[in-house]
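Comment thread on ticket #2218

A.B. wrote:
> Attaching the input chain for the structure job we discussed in standup.
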Amino acid sequence: MKVKHVNENDLEYRNKDSGPKYLIRGPNIDWGVILMKPGTKMGAHGHNEVEETFYFLSGEGNIYINDKAYPAKAGDVYYLEPKEKHDIENTGDDDMKLVFIKHPYLPDDKIKY
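C.D. wrote:
> Ran it. Output below, let me know if you need it in another format.
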């Protein structure tokens, strides 16, 4: 068994101070954290084969699933099946942080809207 270890503090967010930060990439899952600044959206997208789970750690906002808004706050978990269009918006005054888990590991499996 090969142990893979990372520390979140050793990695950068895609946009330096926000966006996604992948902690584990493959061979079976993709997962990491997303930091969203107040008033920002992640960007609507979906996946053909990948299922995705979001666990909200802090902040508040909305998760949009197939264009319907659902409230999201610390402690909430949302599971999305393949082909479900989704977006996340930080509607609060503070940063929003969440964990994402995608399975299976298919980094090019993205539907853009």
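A.B. wrote:
> Thanks. Noting for the ticket: The chain has one domain: 14-70+78-106.
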